[in-house]
Amino acid sequence: MTSDRDSNILILGGGPAGVSAGYELSKNDYRSTILERWRKVGGLAKTIEFGEWRSDIGPHRFFSKNRFLYKMIEEILHEQWILVDRFTRFYIQGKYFMYPVQMADALKNLGLLKAFRAMIDYLYSRFRKHLFNPPIKDFEDFVILEFGNTLANLNMINYTEKIWGIPAKEISAEWAKQRIKGLSLMALMKKAIFKGTKGPKTLVDQFYYPEMGASQTYEMMADKMEKKGSTVVTNATVCQLDHSDEGITSVTVEKPDGSRDTFECDQCISSIPVTELVKMLRPVAPEEVIRAAEQLKYRYQVYLFMKINKKRVSQDNWIYFPDKDIPFGRMHEPKNFSLAMSPEDKTSLWVEHFVFPDDSRWDCSTDELFEITLEHLEKLNFIKRGDVIEYHKHREDFVYPIYDLTYQKHSGLIKDYLKQFTNLQLVGRAGRFRYNNQDHSIETGVLAARNIIENANYDLEKVGAEQEYFEKYSLQTQGARTQQDLETGEMVSKAK
Ligand SMILES: Cc1cc2nc3c(=O)[nH]c(=O)nc-3n(C[C@H](O)[C@H](O)[C@H](O)COP(=O)(O)OP(=O)(O)OC[C@H]3O[C@@H](n4cnc5c(N)ncnc54)[C@H](O)[C@@H]3O)c2cc1C
Questions:
Q1: pLDDT by residue (tens digit) across 275-314?
Q2: Domain membership of residue 343 as a residue range
Q3: Which atom of ligand 1 is nearest to the CA of 237?
Q4: From ligand 1's centre to the CA of 272, what distance in Å?
Q5: Residue 206 domain-assigned?
Q6: Are 213 and 54 in contact (CB under 8 A)?
Q7: 271: CA distance to ligand 1 center in Å?
């Protein structure tokens, strides 16, 4: 897939995956053009400015098992990559539970009777698993078998249903395997009882964060790219990809004023939703491919940002709200990530509603969203109406690719079809229809760039495909903070 340095390399989408691809190319003296529909780079990891306030569109804690990524970001941000103490909780039926789970805290909150019940359920599920090894058909089967009925229903099933908007019985077990396999209740208990015993390494209590917000990393990467001759075109929505039998030949974007620009293409790295991309192909993709794209669904999000006339509202980085009677799913306080996110004597809150586009909250007015949200924040004693200085609504589409029971069949069909275009690489989250965090998006971007630079064949589909809990390793053992770590950091070779 090699290209010379004068070829036209187009990158569709300026989120972490797209920008990382462009940055890696520019480090190797390749010029590229990023085509991004928003006014800035950052994608779902964007940071929005509201006067003196700033906020990401949801809490962004960077975590990776790949030391190369820590090294790469450290080289960009230097001392502006700050270490943050993690404090995160679940609010369930009137009580706050520490997250990641702390045994003593969980037992205290559950009460003796419920804790006993949880333990019996857990032992029963272990017994069933080992004796009968029942088939796991969906997410609900998986978590009940792993954790027992009581714990699965406490926060896993209801929160998952809130995120995805479909019953746990209709969510693929793949989702659970990717996210929570390896989290064992027994290991947590051992850790609580025998101090020093190695529990699951999910108890990450610190994380790195760019001082000016999650997108600082990507904005700085984009600046460096542009200084080396690459181009970032913002406010440019990709609307058409022309192709021959083998490859993409040009890409057309639409500007806010309705005008169109077309860019010639020798290599194309795409992080825009793959389901949209196949609909933009000219000549058009076969009907069965378009149908498969229409079967794949995403969860959207609507957010309320509030400037608050208080020094602080909470001590939490973020709080999850799995209960169904609370309309939103998560809230974060940007100041608890970095003091640079609000004026010294004020703070702010960012509240996430998970929706489908036909949900009334998607199109409701900012005032309506504020009223729906405020009612619950007042009840929960976080703020009073008089504390709110100003509020804003923000929306994002294609946020969570939904892993329903048939998503693999449909995304497989689309990707098989797209394989014929040898100069097209799919990277990132919606770009691959894979639920992943920043780390795996960056990895796919870097590897896509290296495929071009080295004429290599890194398999981007393998990035993040391992079925294990993302938080398995602690920052202290895996982060690249020591000089030795920085020097020994290697890019994933597994993808080769
Ligand atoms: C609420 C929330 C919380 C999160 N928390 C964390 C966290 O704690 N830690 C973590 O690591 N990750 C977190 N993530 C995930 C992280 O934001 C994503 O994994 C990452 O941003 C994905 O990067 P990407 O480049 O693959 O895709 P995206 O960020 O989606 O970027 C794709 C880009 O393509 C652009 N685009 C789309 N269509 C077009 C088009 N037609 N033309 C041109 N441009 C287009 C979009 O505007 C976007 O900029 C969170 C995400 C959300 C939403």
A1: 999 999 999 999 999 999 999 999 999 999 999 999 999 9
A2: 298-401
A3: 42
A4: 9
A5: no
A6: yes
A7: 9
